[in-house]
């Protein structure tokens, strides 16, 4: 294990990084952060010892606080579980949705392996029940070549074919897999049949609400990313010079000198190039801006003197 000498020369930033790494990999559960640095959104304060633990460690069936206050029954019965987690039947513990009826006891009361409990459990949005009505799997797990359901129904073609994907997903051409809509026609195959990158299939698919087609009719992109200096369309049409010059900037943004890219005026003269033509860091413009600001400050000082 680590001795005190191991850590004595580490800066606080490095120490925080090390501690977070240890938490992620579960190497040392006894390390914790003092209340002075506790984040109220993500951390829980133990009752004694001025110790903070991660909120996801509350009511997980394990005492992470020395005094066991993270497993206090009244609190555990009152709290809601995190997304994709469910309460055990005794109401004291939250377990991952994927651990329900998976063959291993995760609840202290063993209710997560009780068939009646599993059947009564409803799947959240973007999850579907396996054919045996016991487990929930994400729609992205349907017919992906890896079994998620213990009964294997998520790899059954008829089951996949009959299951709807949900609003944020689209079916591949074989009508088996579901793919996250923004991942369709993005240059990378997500469908096992590779139909999500098939040109004709992509052209036939409508964009998700709020997105628009690139000029080639294949990809869908957020219109806010048009003329921002970065290529989001594979055909580069989102940065087409003529289109960008004709396009008006969104409210709060201004055109660069070349009339193509729109940038936030707050980023002008900040030392970083945001315009492709570098006009936002133009030396003469920045000097004038600084001079105008200095004149404004001088005017304000004079005004205060006259008022005093």
Task: Summarize this structure as a short list of keywords or feature phrases.
LDLR-related; repeat; 3-stranded antiparallel β-sheet; disordered N terminus; transmembrane helix; 8 helices; two-stranded antiparallel sheet; glycoprotein; 308 residues; flat
Tell me briefly what this model is.
By secondary structure, the chain is of the alpha+beta class.
Give the overall form. Answer: flat
Q: Which series of helices and strands comes N to C?
A: HHEEEHEEHEEHEEHEEHEEH
**Count of DSSP helices?**
8
Instruction: Calculate the terminal CA-CA distance, rounded to whole Å.
Output: 67 Å
Low-confidence runs of at least 5 consecutive residues: 1-10, 21-36
Strand residue percentage: 5-15%
**Sheet/helix structural class:** alpha+beta
Largest sheet: number of strands, sense, barrel closure: 3 strands, antiparallel
- With strands numbered from the N-terminus, the spatial order across the biggest sheet is 1-3-2
Radius of gyration (CA) equals 28 Å
Into which percent range does the helicity of residues fall?
Answer: 10-25%
E-strand count: 13
Round the mean pLDDT to the nearest integer and report it.
82
InterPro entries: LDL_receptor-like_sf, LDLR-related, LDLR_class-A_CS, LDrepeatLR_classA_rpt
Keywords: Disulfide bond, Glycoprotein, Membrane, Receptor, Repeat, Transmembrane, Transmembrane helix
Pfam families: Ldl_recept_a
Subcellular location: Membrane
């Amino acid at each position: 294990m680590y001795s005190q000498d191991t850590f004595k020369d580490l800066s606080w930033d490095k120490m925080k990084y090390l501690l977070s790494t240890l938490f992620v990999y579960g190497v040392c559960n006894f390390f914790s952060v003092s209340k002075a640095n506790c984040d109220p959104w993500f951390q829980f304060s133990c009752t004694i010892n001025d110790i903070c633990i991660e909120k996801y460690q509350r009511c997980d069936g394990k005492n992470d606080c020395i005094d066991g206050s993270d497993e206090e029954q009244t609190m555990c019965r009152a709290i809601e579980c995190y997304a994709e987690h469910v309460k055990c039947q005794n109401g004291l513990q939250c377990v991952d949705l994927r651990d329900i009826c998976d063959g291993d006891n995760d609840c202290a009361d063993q209710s997560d392996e009780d068939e009646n409990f599993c059947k009564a459990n409803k799947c959240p949005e973007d999850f579907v029940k396996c054919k045996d009505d016991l487990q929930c799997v994400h729609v992205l797990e349907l017919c992906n070549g890896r079994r998620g359901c213990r009964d294997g129904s998520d790899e059954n073609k008829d089951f996949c074919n009959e299951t709807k994907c949900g609003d944020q997903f689209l079916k591949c051409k074989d009508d088996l897999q579901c793919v996250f809509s923004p991942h369709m026609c993005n240059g990378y195959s997500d469908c096992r049949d590779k139909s999500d990158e098939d040109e004709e299939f992509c052209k036939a698919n409508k964009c998700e609400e709020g997105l628009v087609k690139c000029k080639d009719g294949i990809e869908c992109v957020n219109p806010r990313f048009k003329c921002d200096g970065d290529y989001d369309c594979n055909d580069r049409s989102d940065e087409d010079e003529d289109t960008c010059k004709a396009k008006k900037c969104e409210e709060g943004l201004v055109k660069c000198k070349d009339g193509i890219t729109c940038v936030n005026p707050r980023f002008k003269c900040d030392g970083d190039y945001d315009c492709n033509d570098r006009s936002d860091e133009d030396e003469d413009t920045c000097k004038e801006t600084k001079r105008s600001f200095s004149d404004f400050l001088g005017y304000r000082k004079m005004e205060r003197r006259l008022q005093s």
